[in-house]
Amino acid sequence: MKEIYILRHAKSSWDNINLADFDRPLAKKGIDDAKKLCSFLKKHKFNAAKVICSNAKRAKETFDLTADGFQFLIDGATYTDELYFGNIDTVIEKIKETEEELKNILIVGHNPTLHLLVENLIDESIQKFSTCNLAIISFKDKWKNLLPHKCKLKSLIRPKEIKF
After folding, report:
1. Fewest CB atoms less than 10 Å from the CB: which of 45, 119, 124, 152?
2. Which long-range contacts (CB under 8 A, 24 or more apart) does 109-115 make?
3. 28 and 47 in contact (C-beta within 8 Å)?
């Protein structure tokens, strides 16, 4: 069984309206949500075998704050503009390139692409894929054979619903 972790970046700051969208950092709420998610991930012993993260500042900051929860070294992640500028086909192609011996992959990026990706993979509608939400998707095939509509949503973790 393979798993795809899809993490939308945490809430970004709009304090400096002169910043380009790509360069916006996390807001205090985003930082708090990412830390809360990290604690949840640690408690439940999550582990990411591979990470592909958008190069946008808010996505990188989100991963930096959650990396320990995934038991993944920040320096080991692959950072790419394709998760900022790309579409769901781009993301699916990236996932298909995963080494077969790896059991899971974490994708950190942006809406609307990630919301559409989740719905496309599981062939279901999800009402909302808010900031710092984590979708856990499973499928029973080789990475290179990943196809839309062939996966199952195992869980959708929302920081506002996490209770300790």
Report:
1. 45
2. 109/6, 109/7, 109/8, 109/9, 109/53, 109/54, 109/59, 109/83, 109/84, 110/8, 110/9, 110/54, 110/56, 110/59, 110/83, 110/84, 111/8, 113/83, 113/86, 113/87, 113/88, 114/6, 114/8, 115/8
3. no
pLDDT given for residue 164 in this prediction: 73
Question: How far lies 157's CA from each of 45, 83, 131, in Å?
Answer: 14, 21, 11
Residue 25: asked if its preceding bond is cis (omega within 30°), the reply is no
For residues 11-19, average pLDDT: 95
Distance CA 88, CA 33 (A): 25
Question: How confident is the model over 86-112, as pLDDT tens digits?
Answer: 899 999 999 999 999 999 999 999 999
